[in-house]
Design a protein that fits this description.
300 residues; alpha+beta; five-stranded antiparallel beta sheet
């Protein structure tokens, strides 16, 4: 069993702090508790309500969000709360009992075409993963029961998971009009049943916890940090809407070269080379004059 680790994440609401766990603690269900009575089926939430400043507890996926009363500032108590949650989880404490009623949200999944004719994006109205994952074979997919099952379809070539969608790359043996409904129904049914999307240890094993990502970022040189920030702010949202991702790999200051990895729908997409050269390369040249000359991509 992997050790639970909890990190503090601020939110746009200064009354609410998210305590992010390095693995999933609910089966993709969400629970909201407004007081200790409502929390009778969540021993963890009940314990948190014993803290006099706790106003509301929200448990979902891989985090616990807590809203406070104004009698304290989060900066004074958040580390203590984080430690309390971490200790509770590592002592085998129950997060939510099986009898607890999750907030009822009907699952919807719709199919969306992408610029890559080999890739279809299946979008859910529920958050399904806490980080992005790409699997290009059934061997790689050991950490994702959903991806493993999708690879049992003979036409599935690769599976890319992001916050609320699954991008599937198909082999040419099948046409989308023949398989889209089948895949959409399969994914919808899978999520509705609350089945495990990725294993609890996946975030830790694949170096995708917030703490690991922050640590890797801090180890970069200053120019690499600037490049990562530009990609995060200006490029990732656009490629995510197309069902893909761009990931920074390295920066060579002598050659002024940036290496990135294209994943999901961006991998092998006919238009990605153009986007890379005319879009991303030009943007980095303009925003980091004299520091970037070329951007090269490897497909995920």
């Amino acid at each position: 069993m992997n050790t639970f680790k909890v990190s503090v994440q601020e939110t746009s609401n200064n009354s609410i702090v998210k305590f992010e766990v390095n693995q999933f603690i609910t089966k993709h269900q969400s629970f909201e508790f407004n007081n200790i009575d409502e929390a009778k089926n969540s021993p963890l939430a009940q314990q948190l309500f014993y803290l006099p400043f706790v106003k509301k507890v929200y448990i979902s996926g891989n985090f616990i969000a807590v809203e406070r009363y104004n009698i304290v500032e989060w900066s004074d108590v958040q580390d203590e709360v984080s430690e309390q949650i971490e200790t509770y989880l590592n002592d085998g404490g129950v997060v939510v009992e099986a009898s607890a009623t999750a907030k009822k949200i009907a699952v919807t999944v719709y199919a969306e075409s992408t610029p890559n004719p080999s890739v279809m994006k299946f979008v859910s109205n529920k958050k399904i993963v806490a980080a992005l994952f790409e699997f290009t074979s059934i061997d790689e997919a050991k950490l994702s029961p959903l991806a493993t099952e999708l690879f049992h379809f003979p036409f599935v070539k690769s599976v890319f998971l992001d916050e609320n969608y699954v991008s599937i790359t198909k082999y040419d043996v099948a046409e989308w009009q023949d398989i889209t409904i089948q895949l959409r129904e399969f994914i919808k049914d899978y999520i509705e049943k609350g089945k495990e999307i990725v294993k609890s240890e996946a975030l830790e094993t694949l170096q995708k916890t917030t703490k690991q990502i922050d640590s890797n970022f801090e180890a970069l040189d200053d120019v690499s940090k600037q490049i990562v920030n530009i990609l995060e702010e200006y490029v990732k949202p656009a490629v995510a809407s197309d069902g893909g991702n761009i990931q920074f790999i390295s920066y060579n200051s002598a050659e002024k070269n940036v290496s990135v990895m294209l994943q999901g729908a961006c991998s092998g997409c006919p238009s990605s080379t153009y986007t890379l050269k005319s879009g991303i390369e030009n943007m980095l040249k303009e925003m980091l004059p004299g520091k970037v000359e070329t951007v090269e991509a490897i497909n995920g």
